[in-house]
Amino acid sequence: MRKRTAIVLVLSLLLMLILATAAVAQTPTKQVALVIQFEDGAVYTEIVTAPVDATTAEVLEAANIPVGMADAGFGPAVCNIDNQGCPTDNCFCNPDQFWAYYHLEGDAWTSSLVGVGNYTPADKAVEGFAWSGFDADFNPTVQPPVMTFEEVLNANSKRVGLVVQYEDGSVHAEIVKVLKNATTADVLKAAQVPVALAETSFGPALCSIDNQGCPSDNCFCNPDKFWAYYHLEGDAWAVSQVGIGGYAPADRAVEGFAWSGFDADFNPTEQPPVVTFEQIEIGDIPGAPPPPAEIPEPATILLLGGGLAGLAGYARRRRRAA
Questions:
Q1: Model pTM?
Q2: Which of 49, 80, 222, 266 can pair with 85 through a Cys bridge, CB separation 3.0 to 4.6 Å?
Q3: Strands 43-51 and 157-165, how do they pair?
Q4: What does 214-265 look like in DSSP terms, one character per residue?
């Protein structure tokens, strides 16, 4: 009885913490691809998620690569990218080279006619930069390689296996394609199965998967069960020591979830079946429903019916002839 009271008390405190956490408004976002060529020919690419109204300057600020910018009177100017270029307090220190800025239009680069602070790229736009000289007409002489959004996405993505076991023992498994720096929370958001998350002071919490669990506005409604979270390590599940927002699975990693109770030490009592990434790829999923039986297309049925009718007519003619 004391043990159950302690469990209820702990979960009640967690619920109070959730309720005390301010709701985080979901800002519409877009994804913009960056293609950057350095002086030595090295190329850096990245998919940046930014607010839908973000300028290219704000996309650069949100990128993982360090960028130095300075207010040049006509808006922000790019001084250096990954320490190549000029310091921000002397942005045009090099009279012969600068960071040329391009937009990808179709299958070719177009030199931007406005600065990075005055252009708002669309969702899935590709913006290019190259450390370049210029010709007699002040046109840049170096361009980054042409890469489409899909090519940049493929170069910056990973695939993560997801295995989910429900209370009735049924299993859902899929492979989710996400950006390389995506957390497990991002993987869940990108999955085919619907999930509900809630923002808490310790990061996103998983409330329900495919409507099993609790609503996002009362994420810990069940004092006896929760979504246990695992990493597949070798041929066994290991309970995650961090939340879904604090862990970034590797390419071809497998993350597991099970609707579970817990023991006296608060360890989960249920695990999903061990399924490797390769098994998910070929559809070998223990506990998953079998694929639906293939139904012949109407045209196939008509052809089959016509063939049977023809055989029947042929048989009748043979009998009459006999």
A1: 0.69
A2: 80
A3: unpaired
A4: --GGGTT--SS-EEEEEEEETTEEEE-SS-TTS--PPTT-EEEEEEE-B-TT
Nearest to 81 by CA among 105, 97, 104, 103: 97
Same fold? 29-154, 156-282: yes
Q: Starting at the edge strand that comes first in sequence, how are the strands of the sheet with 29-37 ordered?
A: 43-51, 29-37, 126-132, 98-105, 108-111
H/E segment holding residue 208: strand 203-209
> What would the pLDDT profile of 117-157 be if each residue is shown by its tens digit?
999 999 999 999 999 999 999 999 999 999 999 999 999 99
Domain boundaries, the chain: 29-154, 156-282
**What separation in angstroms does the CA of 10 have from each of 5, 6, 13, 217?**
9, 6, 5, 18
Return the structure tokens found at 205. Answer: 């919490």
Closest residue by Cα to residue 47 from 115, 134, 149: 149
Average pLDDT for 253-266: 96
Q: How far is CA 223 from the centre of its chain?
A: 31
Residue 293, CA distances (Å) to 193, 289, 290, 296 in order: 22, 12, 9, 10
Q: How many residues does the chain have?
A: 322
Q: Which two tokens stand for residue 227?
A: 């979504």
Contact between residue 35 and residue 121 where contact means Cβ atoms under 8 Å apart: no
- H/E stretch holding 205 reads strand 203-209
Specify whether the CB–CB gap between 45 and 33 falls below 8 A: yes
Q: Does domain 29-154 have CATH number 2.60.120.290?
A: no
pLDDT (tens digit, 9 = 90+) per residue, 275-322? 999 999 999 988 766 555 545 545 444 444 444 445 445 445 555 555
Contact 244, 229 (CB under 8 A): yes
CATH number of 156-282: 2.170.130.30
Q: Give the ranges where 46-109 is alpha helix by DSSP (H).
A: 56-62
